[in-house]
Amino acid sequence: MGSRTCDLVGQVDPAQSFDTQALLRYASANVIGFPPNPSLFTISQFGHGQSNPTFLIEVCSGTLAKKYVLRKKPCGNLLASAHAVEREYEVLHALSTHSVVPVPKVFCLCTDSSVIGTPFYIMEYLEGRIFVDPMLPDVLPERRRVIYRAVAQALAGLHSADVDIVGLGNYGKRMNYCKRQVERWAKQYLLSTGEGKSRRNPKMLELADWLRQHIPLEDSSGATAGLVHGDFRIDNVVFHPIEDRVIGILDWELSTLGNQMCDVAYSCLGFIVNIASESIEENNGFELTSFPDGVPSLSNYLGDYCSAAGRPWPIEQWKFYIAFSLFRGASIYAGVHCRWIMEVTVPDALGKRLIPSLELHGRLSKENLFSLSTLQLRQA
């Protein structure tokens, strides 16, 4: 069935709370059609997979009831270039205005941190379904194949967007994406690990060196360049409430221009590894060998993508793209774990300990986050 978007919200995390009246004043002045003096104004927080805290705004005025989504930077010290809600707003505005790529409409961007503490933007709320578990346990087998085909087609449609026509021609550098990304995530990993932080795994450094030596030639030629989502997976898309079609692609924090094969490989990790916390000890997070009936094989999923995108298969140096996806994922997890360590060990002004929400593939414990950042390297 999938989780309804409205069922993924709960109470606001105290560590991410903000001045709701300041938000109300700002939204009333900057969002067209936002009720200025609502009889009801409530804020709840989405709890699934949000590195940038995301909130549901519900507002009523008389018989008028509306829902919006607010997405903001987290509080605290952040790694350079991380949590760029300004870039999310830019790409969503361009795609919703000038393309048929399914994304929520955006209404305003606030870069003034004095309003609610960090920059944020407000966008359209999409009523639909999100499939948190990529194995689709509550879906009939015959519909699983249709759902995955829709995911592959959504990625192909995203990649088909003409960035020059939609106004994203300067959204990033098109050439040498993999080369820059390897260096970026290697640097982020070093910043996130070491003394007083997560334990540094030497296999990460070995893998970074291997990646540097195997950059695909197409990366420098721009042959596979275009819009890159950066975090495309099944639980980052919203499906229609009852139809098996994608109505929205979410979480554009890592989007840019670059080598689109990195997007394809990252979207395939669910066919290759299982990092669900309950499965880590069972299979070390690696080498999925069986899938529920109806979930396509990796080759079938790639076939659907290539057919929709008009690209041939096989892709040369596929091993590089998968290895890079694992490397980047491990670096991200290390960064999340590092931030957790900093927040639970640095007292706030009242001497209290900060306990943030750990929201990456669901709510995870400190131990699980560390496991996820290292298990992906055991067979690197």
UniProtKB/TrEMBL annotation:
A Pfam family matched in the record: APH
Aminoglycoside phosphotransferase domain span: 42-268
Gene3D superfamilies: 3.90.1200.10, Phosphorylase Kinase, domain 1
Annotated InterPro entries: ACAD10-like, ACAD10_11_N, Aminoglycoside_PTrfase, Kinase-like_dom_sf
PANTHER family: AMINOGLYCOSIDE PHOSPHOTRANSFERASE DOMAIN-CONTAINING PROTEIN, HYDROLASE, PUTATIVE (AFU_ORTHOLOGUE AFUA_1G12880)-RELATED
Protein name: Aminoglycoside phosphotransferase domain-containing protein
Organism of origin: Solanum stoloniferum
